[in-house]
Structure formats: C-alpha cells, structure tokens
C-alpha cells in the first residue's frame, strides 16, 4: 500500500497507519509498526523531530532546550538508548548542595533532605511517608479506580498538604517537587490525586524528592538524538516534516465512531500531504488535539475530557560559564528554594565540556510575572536568583538562554498535560481509549514514565501493539 493515487485534485499516498507527531511516542509507534511489516507515514508539524526534546547550539554552547534526564527506573528509554548505540553520562553531583530558607538564609548541606530545621525536617519526612503510603495503595495504572480517588481528586494538593501539616515550610518544600519541579502549575491548581500519580509514575514519592534518582543521567549528544536516530532509521519516505495535520476523516456523513468497521479507510489531510490508511495514531499532547478537525466529530466525552487537560508553564534557564566555578567551592551546583525565583538549580555541564553550565527553572506564577518584564530585566532577576545559590560569579555567564515551550506553536506549555481539580478520577479511565480507528499516544497519558520520554515510548509501543492485535483479530493486518 505505498503507491500514489489521485483523490479529486489532491495527490495522496496510501499507508497502513498514519502517525501524527514525530516526538518519541510517534516515532516509537512507527518503529514498532514498521518492524512488524506495516507501512507508515509520520506527519510532523515542526521542521524537526523530537517534540518536547530539542537540542540547539546557541552562541557556541550546546543546550538541551527540552526534556533531557533519565532515571534508573526508565527501562524502556534505557533499553532504546542502548539499542540505538547512544551513550549516557551521569549528572554532576559531587560536593554540597544549597538550600535557601524562607527568610533568605543560605545553607549548604549533603544528603537528600533540606537543612530546614529539626521540626520542619521531621514534618517533611512524615509527609513523604504519607505520600509513599498513598502511592503504594493507589498504584500507577488506574489511580481513578481507587476508593480514595474522588476524595483526593477534589482537593488541591496545596490544601491537602495543609490538612496534613501546619508546618508551612514543610508544605512549601514538599510542593517544590510536584508543583514547580514536575507539573509546573501552582499547587492549588491540581489535585492531591494528580500529585500521587506523579509520584507513582516515578515509583514512589521518595524517588520524586531524590534528585540523584530522578535526574540521574543524560544522553551524550542530547535527548533529541534518540528521536533523530529513530527518524533516520525510518527514513524520509516515512517521516515528513513541516506537515501539520488539519483534518482526520473516517466514514461518511451521518456515521458515528460507534459504527466503525475495522479496516475502513481513514483520510488524513495535512498542509503538504494527504494519506489514506486504516489506522491513525495521534501522538501529540492533549492540548493540541483541538488543532485537528475530526470528521465525524469526536464523541462528547472526548470533547469534555480534553477541556480539562492543560500544560503548565516553565522557563528553563541555561547559563554557561568559562568554568564550572562552583565545583572549586566544593558545591555540586544543586540548589533548592521554595520562595526563590529559580526554585531549582542544577549543574548541567555537557559531557567532556570544560565549560560549566547551570540550568535553573522558573515555574507557574513566577514565570507569569517575569515573562511580563522586558527581557533584560528578566535576565537580571534570574541571574540574581542563581547568584543567591552559587555566588556573584553566576551573574556573568558567557552564554545565557531561556527555553520557553509555552510560546511554541506546536507545544504551548511544559512539561506535560495534567487535569484540573476533579478531572483525573472523572476522565482518566477514558484518556487512552481508541475512538474508532484513532489511537492516542503521548507521555501525558502514561502511567510509568508519565510526562517523561520513557512514558512517551511506552505509549507509542502500546498504540502500535493495539493496532497489531486488532489487525490480527479482524484479518485487517497484512
């Protein structure tokens, strides 16, 4: 099914499957399908592959503008990196870390717990224990099905924390790891159940608060190289760039998805190409589903569900220096401060690079505030925040760059979609359910590896497996 034919005035190609989106999920789906003998077209709106992973050289400095880290439990990603022949290296973590207290006091420390005072540390450990217990009870696969789901999904994480503890500093410090560090939304904007899912996707809340676990290593050459290598293997006759999909049409007028007959042709229109296929994998985040017209319209449940999912906002700040000066001071480059503009800072020096790179994160409402400022004023405030962690040398980088995926046309936020209050238990069971010939695949829908490349790969493989199983059952496969 690879010949070309004419549909009206348009030239179309035929494939077994169309994949919308050339991020890790879409490329993994295509890779699995091609390996099983299916013909595939991957249509990508951007001029590059990789989705929310993206590397660029800026003023001579190699920067990973998007997702970059791998944790030890991300076995799907680790196996693929090995299979593709790519290398990894550990994040620098030797020396002391820095904690900025609510009163602005600067403390250095070793270990995984902030030096926040004896009573606050005890409260933080107690809260982590409670959350670990909830993760163990509720699990990662179907958190919406647990008896506590509704109760936990109708209270914000901020309010839930304060029901558990009156120690404000402990609540704020725990909140860093989910609100600013992961969901990039204020802790009052998502539920306690969403926080439990975030922790469960990493194995436990203890893992989530352990930066040496969750931010363990990077790919030599950048995380985008995983997608670039997969795309190169698939080839230019499979992966089409600068090809935003506008319409997906299945069946005729008056028919519904409930009447879908497997194997019925689906037509996918894009700006550059029309593809006729039997199955479609939509491998973009849920906030972009509405950029596509579906004919017939998606079911009511889908329309409602997608309106309750949104991405957060974060500025990923890259500051490159002639040397990693903090190491000479016995510092790891790691810093945390719940009330700081940059709530998290890490040594992000590239593999075998003599220069030093720091990465800092400005999330949610703090990002709103500084994005409203002139660029030079924003830069000054952010560098002053880095300097409060690591000293005045941080004020003078040789390269400075801000990644802002919220302004990207085909992303519109970071790092992944999460539900508003009450949305996860209401819609979670349906978020990955196929609609007629359409399947969904992205890190935003993952269980293990939620909002990470590992989860995207798992989702892509699951979508491909679903198509292959359905084809075997109906005889619609090859």
Automatic annotation (TrEMBL):
Gene Ontology MF: a single term: oxidoreductase activity
Domain Amine oxidase: 25-468
Positions contributing to substrate binding: 361
The protein's required cofactors: FAD
Organism superkingdom: Bacteria
Binding, FAD: 44-45, 245
Name listed for the protein in its UniProt record: Putative putrescine oxidase
Organism field: Kocuria turfanensis
């Amino acid at each position: 099914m690879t010949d070309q034919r004419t549909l009206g005035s348009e030239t179309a190609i035929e494939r077994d499957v169309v994949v919308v989106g050339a991020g890790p999920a879409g490329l993994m789906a295509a890779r699995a399908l091609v390996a099983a003998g299916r013909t595939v077209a991957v249509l990508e709106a951007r001029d590059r592959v990789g989705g929310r992973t993206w590397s660029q050289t800026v003023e001579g400095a190699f920067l990973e503008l998007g997702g970059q880290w791998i944790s030890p439990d991300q076995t799907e990603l680790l196996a693929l990196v090995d299979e593709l022949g790519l290398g990894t290296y550990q994040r620098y973590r030797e020396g002391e870390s820095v904690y900025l207290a609510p009163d602005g006091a600067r403390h250095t420390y070793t270990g995984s717990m902030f030096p926040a005072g004896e009573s606050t540390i005890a409260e933080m450990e107690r809260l982590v224990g409670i959350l670990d217990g909830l993760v163990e009870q509720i699990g990662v696969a179907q958190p919406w099905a647990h008896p506590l789901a509704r109760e936990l999904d109708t209270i914000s994480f901020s309010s839930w924390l304060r029901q558990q503890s009156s120690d404000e500093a402990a609540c704020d410090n725990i909140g860093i790891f989910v609100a600013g560090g992961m969901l990039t939304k204020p802790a009052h904007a998502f539920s306690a159940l969403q926080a439990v899912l975030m922790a469960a996707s990493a194995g436990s809340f203890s893992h989530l608060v352990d930066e040496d676990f969750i931010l363990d290593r990077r790919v030599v050459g950048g995380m985008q190289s995983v997608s670039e290598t997969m795309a190169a293997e698939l080839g230019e006759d499979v992966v089409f760039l600068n090809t935003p999909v506008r319409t997906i049409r299945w069946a005729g007028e008056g028919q519904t998805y409930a009447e879908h007959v497997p194997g019925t042709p689906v037509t996918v229109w894009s700006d550059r190409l029309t593809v006729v296929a039997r199955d479609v994998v939509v491998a973009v985040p849920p906030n972009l589903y509405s950029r596509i017209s579906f004919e017939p319209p998606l079911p009511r449940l889908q329309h409602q569900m997608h309106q309750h999912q949104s991405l957060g906002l974060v500025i990923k700040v890259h500051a490159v220096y002639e040397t990693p000066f903090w190491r000479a001071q016995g510092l790891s480059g790691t810093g945390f401060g719940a009330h700081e503009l940059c709530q998290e800072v890490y040594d992000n020096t590239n593999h075998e690079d003599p220069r030093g790179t720091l990465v800092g994160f400005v999330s949610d409402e703090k990002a709103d505030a500084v994005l409203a400022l002139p660029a030079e004023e924003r830069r000054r405030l952010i560098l002053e925040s880095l300097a409060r962690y690591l000293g005045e040398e941080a004020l003078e980088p040789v390269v400075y760059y801000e990644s802002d995926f919220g302004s990207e046309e085909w992303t519109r936020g970071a790092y992944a979609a999460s539900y508003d209050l009450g949305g996860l238990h209401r819609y979670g069971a349906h978020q990955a359910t196929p609609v007629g010939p359409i399947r969904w695949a992205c890190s935003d829908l993952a269980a293990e590896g939620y909002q990470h490349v590992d989860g995207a790969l798992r989702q892509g493989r699951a979508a491909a497996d679903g198509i292959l199983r359905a084809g075997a059952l109906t005889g619609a496969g090859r």
